[in-house]
Specification:
By secondary structure, the protein is an all-alpha fold. It has a domain of about 90 residues: Alpha Horseshoe (Serine Threonine Protein Phosphatase 5, Tetratricopeptide repeat), CATH 1.25.40. The protein contains 21 helices and no strands. About 45% of the residues are buried. About 5% of the residues have low confidence.
Length: about 400
């Protein structure tokens, strides 16, 4: 029942575009303003332009004061609410920014960029369903807003709505064929739908646009791995390793690919590198144990399974493989029984475990328990001649023991 745990995919989704969609304004103010010094010297338009310039200069508190001054005289100024929302957004006051954008939308629900800006603020509050709704409304107002498609698609990935994400990111690519973020995120969405070939195409496009995008190499390697293109996966992981980035992840993933190629010694070397960098990588210990077991390094394999159990005592596979190896080697059989029972307790739907426990019970002379486990196993695997033979052997042994007692 040996099988490998999954390789590590980059969890990095290309970051939402966090630039606020500033509304149109032809005037450009170059000086840095002091809000209080000018409260009686400018028109409403002047204050708005001053607020915009203050935001550009990262003087967000000044921008808020300029907007406040406008709103005192004109509480229905859409632009003042919008710019004040922009300033609050940049200060990290996302809830207050949402309130300002909402007020602006009450006054003018068809103004471009307002729904977009509110969606950006809501994304920081993790109100993802509302985020999608706002991007949708923005697109209804302006269906050429490419960033709204990009960000809606990205949010849909967070909600695991991969088909919708692919549609939106494809739309973004139609509007901007050189969007690295759109190709990268679409690759993530495609991989999650099982379209590994499509994911590879998207990550390859990312690499064409930006050869330094190391996450794209890693994720392309993951997709290649799932297509059993282990050599190509190794090439991509090696590129990541040579970059010096995410070394623990890259060595681990390359170890998985080497395992797929049955290059077990190289696999052990890669898992060892991953462990040296990240000593709490339970999967690296477990999979190195599998490779060591195949290479006949049984004591090393047991040590690795033991370490994996120490790091995560809730994984049934770790206990199963140590129990199997203990039983196979006739070592520490009582511990083998404890291990297989722990494994069954954590997951009792794998019938192979009952066969393994039967073998261990037999070694401990627990004949009745062994037969019970074999009966359970044969109920689901009635044609397994090995299990049938073992059950017959144990029953004959029990009968002979009864005759000897008589």
């Amino acid at each position: 029942m040996s099988f490998l745990q999954k390789i590590i995919n980059s969890k990095n989704i290309a970051v939402l575009l966090l630039s606020i969609g500033l509304l149109a304004g032809n005037s450009a103010y170059s000086p840095v303003y002091c809000a209080k010094a000018h409260t009686k010297k400018m028109s409403a338009t002047g204050y708005i332009e001053a607020a915009k310039q203050s935001i550009k200069d990262k003087q967000y508190e000044n921008a808020i004061e300029f907007c406040n001054h406008v709103l005192k005289k004109n509480p229905n100024s859409v632009e003042a609410y919008n710019q004040r929302g922009n300033a609050k957004y940049n200060l990290g006051k996302y809830k207050e920014a949402v309130e300002d954008y909402s007020k602006a939308l009450e006054l003018n629900p068809n103004r471009q960029n307002l729904y977009y800006n509110r969606a950006l603020a809501k994304s920081h509050l993790k109100k993802y369903d509302e985020v999608i709704s706002d991007y949708t409304k923005e697109i209804e107002i302006n269906n050429t807003n490419k960033n709204a498609y990009l960000n809606r698609g990205t949010t849909e990935i967070l909600l695991q709505k991969y088909d919708e994400a692919i549609y939106d990111l494809s739309k973004m690519i139609e509007l901007d064929s050189k969007s690295e973020l759109a190709y990268y995120n679409r690759g993530i969405a495609k991989r999650n739908t099982g379209d590994y070939k499509g994911a590879i195409e998207d990550y390859t496009k990312v690499i064409e646009l930006n050869p330094d995008n190391i996450d794209a190499y890693n994720n392309r390697g993951v997709a290649q791995y799932y297509l059993n293109n282990y050599s190509k996966a190794i090439d991509d992981y090696t590129k990541v390793i040579n970059s010096g980035k995410d070394l623990a992840k890259a060595y681990y993933n390359r170890g998985m690919a080497n395992f797929g190629l049955k290059k077990y010694e190289q696999s052990v070397e890669d898992f060892t590198k991953a462990i040296e960098i990240s000593s709490d990588n339970e999967s690296a210990y477990f999979n190195r144990g599998l490779a060591q077991e195949i290479l006949g390094n049984d004591s090393c394999a047991i040590d690795d399974y033991t370490k994996a159990i120490e790091l995560n005592p809730d994984n049934d596979e770790y206990y199963y493989h140590r129990a199997y190896l203990y039983g196979k080697l006739n070592l520490n059989i009582k511990q083998a029984l404890k291990d297989i029972e722990n494994s069954i307790k954590l997951d009792n739907n794998d019938w192979e475990k009952y066969y393994t426990r039967a073998v261990i019970h037999n070694k401990l002379q627990h004949h009745i328990q062994a037969v019970d486990d074999l009966n359970l196993y044969l109920k689901n695997n009635p044609d397994n001649t090995e299990a049938i033979g073992l059950r017959s052997y144990i029953i004959k042994k029990m009968n002979n023991e009864l005759k000897d007692k008589k």
